[in-house]
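Many groups now describe folds with learned vocabularies. In that spirit, our science desk offers one protein's residues alongside their backbone shape tokens.
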Amino acid sequence: MVEENNYRSAVVGGGHAADGGGGGRRRLQSSPSSSMSSGSIAIRHRIHHRRSFDCHRPSMMNTTMAQRSSSTDATTSNDDERDNGKPAEDGDEDDDNDDAVPREREDMEFQAETRQLLDIVTHSLYTDREVFLRELVSNASDALEKLRHSRAAGSGCHDDDDDYDGSNVGDGGSPLEIRIETDEASNTLTITDTGIGMTRTEMISNLGTIARSGSKAFVESMRVRGEAQRSGTDASGDVDPFGRGIIGKFGVGFYSGFMVADKVDVRSRSAIKRRKDDGNDDDDDRGAVLWESTGTGRYSLSTLDRNVRQDRGTSVVLHLKPDMAQYSDERTVEAILKKYSNFVGFPIYLNGNRVNTIEAIWLQDPKTVEESKHSDFYKYVSHMYDEPLSTLHFRMDAPLDIKALLYIPSFHQEKYGMGRMDPGVSLYSRKVLVEPKSPDILPEWCRFIKGVVDSEDLPLSISREKSQDSALVGKMRKALTRKIISHLSTMMRKDIEKYRDEFYKEYSFFLKEGVCQDFDSQQSLSKLLLFETSKGMAGELVSLDEYVSRCPPESKDIYYLCAPSRELALLSPYMEGFSKSKREVIFVYSAIDDFVMANLKTFEGRELVSADRSEVDLHPANDVDGDANKGKKDEKDDDTSSRKSLSTAEATEFCAWFQTTLSSKVSQCKTTKRLSSSPAVITDNESGALRRMMRMVETQEGGSSSSAMPLPKQTVEINPNHEIIVGMNSLKDTDPMLAKVLAEQILDNCLVAAGLLDDGRSMLPRLNDLMLCVVKSSVDMDKGIQEREEEVVINESGVQEDETIDGKDKNRRD
């Protein structure tokens, strides 16, 4: 009964066109009649109980194969017994089948080049062994799809086979389904379908020839039939001429079974009716056929007894290698089925239990899919338990036929320190997984999106693990990206609160990453960004479009300032000129924001300009030529002239002294009118935020934080009206040492304001010296004041004494 256990799930399920190895030399052998007799007994026993397993599943192919002769001598001996009329030993138990027609075994060899191809398919074509199950299930699905098409086309598929001596033991309307059984005891895995099946001739053609796809040939025949229908030469029923449900194309998937099995048995019976007078001389084409191979260059064919009940379809039995025993474990097989074949269009049963219970809802009309189905499907594809923030379900015909169902989760995991997320969208073709978490169909910044993309037109590699047309994949990638950006734009326009408070708060980093990396979508993505501005309230975000709409007509640029916080941005010396001219400035608070602005460069024809640039347009936002503004300007000029300030000549001399004194750190010093309360700023400097980020990376890579990335020479702009500058101009002549210390501190203050001072501790000694100078100066000043007060007292006393003496003397004189 070992033989029976090994083949107990054999059902005919067809079309396992290997989609593979050419015929070769043949050798006919007669199998012993005794073997057939014992097989008949086992068959009857199982037929009696076949319906008790699962009321929803059709009967399996209740056929056990006779023991195969292992040597030529054994075959000859059995032939002699049969010729002498001696009943086989095992046949004594079955008197009803004494006249059973014995099967003949035909041994064949693959051709030399076919053996080489088989070796490549088995050892080199696939990157992951587990895909063998995907390939075999896909073949089974194709067999079922072919039967469905053939029935629709009226191709003579039988439900009750009248070829079996009028016994009416046909299929009885077996449902279209796939059954998989694991047997750890015998280390076998059986894949069975109730599809179209194969004849002996088709098995030689499809399984005996690598890279010949029976599915592809079937689709071609359906195309020809469709053309005949359109031309009016064929009146068959309405049938899809393109076979959109057919998966196989290359004719190699079947042979992936040899990656895990050292022997493969295929039993099949065709569902196509063949009349006895149809001119077909091959009587074997009317019965079930057994194909056997060890994948080493040889295979054999045997015709099963036609008088024994055999259902339509194909059964593939994998005798697993010892080191591949995990594929006879039910849990392992179930995980693989759910990974690759969970959306196959026909029911899949594993040891009697339905596996593929989730619908491929991306193929349904988006308007008809209920929210509950979206919720369940989202949890399946994302492996998360929240509800999706937004759903994007669509179809498109160009540049490819694409059906996509994408979800935006309510949160992402990168913010929790769990590392960079993998892509979240998987690529399917005809509901079969091609590439899980595909990195090619969406740009990197879209990795937070979960879902599936299915394309029937996408050309796949032979292993069906990658697309082989990178240009076409690129077009699909662009089309999907445009759809996603359009969806986000619609959300932003129709529900700004949801976009701002839920989506942008959670995913703004990904949009900014896209602006920096995805050049094709840069301008579209920039419209989705939101920022605070100098004229708005804290937390109030506006888009670049809204900022531009508020700009005065004469403004040609978009200004932004990078600072650690809004408070520091408002206190920045760079804001003094913008506040005075009433220019609105965008505030950015992180290195990525600064990097976004530097990469974006322009928006809607306007240049993005950092507030620390020297060439900024600081004319008042209103009409500077108006009478009112002219009066204000005159008042300011009068106010400036009333205060101490450097003349043009003095300012020029001071700038030259400042640049010479700090020649190792300053490349240029000039005056500016942009400052009002600050003595100086540096302009045209590198980004402080980016510098901090680069220093952090340098430190993490083992670099020295003290010596890495020296600062370049800076351009300093001074305010000639500031008291510190005016005082320093005097000190450079009276106390040059103190003036130099003050100049160094002025430069460091400018670096702090620009965010470029790497380590503030470097200026502590100088600050201490300056404070000491202030204290000494204060003490000296107090001492001087005290001395002057004492002198006054002494002087006042001296005057009184003199007056007294003089008075006495005068009195004496008098």
